Every structure is written in structure tokens, then in C-alpha cells.
Predict the structure of Kinesin-like protein.
Amino acid sequence: MKTSGQLPHEKQARPGSGAVLAFPDETDLGVYGPAESQSVVFGDVRPLLTSLLDGYNVCVMAYGQTGSGKSYTMLGPHSDDGPVLPLDPQSDLGIIPRAAEELFRLISENPSRSPKVEVSIVEVYNNDIFDLLAKDTVAAVSGVKREVMTAKDGRTEVALLASEAVGSASKLMELVRGGLQLRAKHPTLVHADSSRSHLIITVTLTTAACSDSTADQACSATLPREQTEAGRAGRSRRTSQGASAPQLVPRDPAGHAEQVQARLQLVDLAGSECIGVSGVTGSALRETACINRSLAALADVLGALSEHRSHIPYRNSRLTHLLQDCLGGDAKLLVILCISPSQRHLAQTLQGLGFGIRARQVQRGPARKRPPSSQMEGKRRPD
């Protein structure tokens, strides 16, 4: 996706299954084939985590037909035991566990910033939002239903959403594993463990206010890394291409810097399906209809954004309403396009490529920092 102030990308990857399409700029097209390792694919995500620590919102989203490798790319091979951290560089683990480890590695490089990391996990199933971290004994085998709300500043939030503070990559992935056990799944003729919902993992990073000269120096790290760390200049430059330079956080009358809050959203979308190929019936048929409608709504939003329409139909689906901030807001967005090499799935592949074309045509304003949501307390209203 080529956007003004966002990282332009479309990708896809699953060893033995397809190819990864990457658009680092307007002219170059990078393709990751079946033989490429997960660590190579993650190379395009790593710079975004530096941007997250700089105060930018970030979203990484995997799109494609069912069975094309989205969950593999985002999570790695299916395992009830979950990933073991720290990672082996040659591991098949996906973007989410790698991002967790990289995030805490970056935090450990500058502990004086005293960041707070919180995690929430939801799924959008049959056009309803379910909180997979809610501690509700009544909902022992599923999440708790929630609603999306819009704050007065236009930011979308999930009402009463449960979140947990984490202090390590292992703890973060422990929560992810627990959430995955509640995610809706159903076997089809295409995929024996087909995800029937859109999974959205949100990592919220809040940097503590500066209170002395030492913290002031730490807060200076919120400037673009290419200005403060020459050794990372090349990596950061590509990530921030087109984005406005982040500014130091405003000071209050006492001379303390405000807190900076940034969100990392990791999205494993449910796969688009051709009913005649997947062979679903009954409740699974309804799931397929809801999945395809929500993905069509996502494509409609991207189309409206690319054509600069006056009305963007975010509320045609709870998925697009929930992702409104990263789709049309100020987040850096990376779209991973998963494609099957099978001739049998040609129609779905062409549909996926069409989605990628729409995504790449979106032009948005520059990415920018946001204050923590706690500063907006009392200003929210029901949507």
C-alpha cells in the first residue's frame, strides 16, 4: 500500500504455499516466495516497531483467502504449546511472536523511559466483537461480547475492553495463546483448522512522563531514529518515508513532558471463501457469509479512501469500524497479501490482488503521535 506518511506494503507468505508481495516504494516490487524464511518476512515489520517506540500508531494486517497462509505468517505453525521465546533465527514462528520479542528488546535498550505495555485481544465473529481476555465465568468457551464506541476526538474504542499489563514477550505470548484457544474455528474442505473470525491483538505502549533531566534525555528518543541514532539511519528512513517528523511531547506548566501513547495492532483476518470450494453448510455457511461481507466492507473502505470520497463507509461492518483509526487515521499500516499458487483458487487470488491494488492506491495524511486515551477520559460518547 502506498500511502502518504505510511509504510507502503502488500505482502503474503507461507513456505510451500505462496508468495509475498512487498511494495517498499512506488516503483519497486518485492516478492517473497515459498522458500523465504519467516525471519526474512519479519524484516519488513521490524522498522515499524522502532516507529512504535517513537510514538506512532502501527498496524500489521494479513489478508487473503482461507488456507493461503495468513495465520502461518502472523503466528507460525499451529501448536497447542505456543512459541518458545527467545526465538531461534531459523524458527518458523511468525510476525506476532517476533514482534513481541523485538518490542521488549527495544524497550530494554532504553529502560529509563519506563514504558508501560498493555495487551488486549478481540475477535470479530459473525459481525460481533468478542473480548478474548475478559474474565467472565459464564463465557467459559468464548469471549465476552463488546461494542465499538467513538470518542469525541474521533478515535474508536471498544467499551469495557479487558487489557492486561505485560512485562515480557513471554507473558505477552501467554495471553495470545489463551486468546487463540477461544477463537472460533471450523474445518472446511480447504482448511482443516479454518479461522472463522478476524483476530485483532492490540499492544498499547505508554511512555511515562519526564520528571528530570535524565528522563528528558530519554524522551528525546521520541525524535526520529535517523536523527538520534546514526547506526539505524537506513532502517528508520524507509519506515518513516513520507511521514511528518514526530515532535517532542508538549510540556505542562511544571516542565514535565506529557505521556505518549502508541498502539500496535496485529490483525489476522479470516480468509475469504468460495462456498462451492470450501463445502461449508449450516452454521459454517453463515460464518462464511459474515466473513465475506466484512472483507467486502474492508475493500469498500479502501476504495472510498483511494477515491477521496466525502463519505467513508466505516460503519458498514464492525470490522471496519473497529479498524477505522488505522485504515483512515494516522497509523503506519502494513498489509500482508497472502496468495495461493493453486490454479483451483485463481478466482480468489485475483480478488486478493484486486484488494491489494485498492490498498496501494490509498493516500492518507502523515502519521502522527497521539496523547494517551486517559487524557480523553470523560469525553467519550456512545457511537
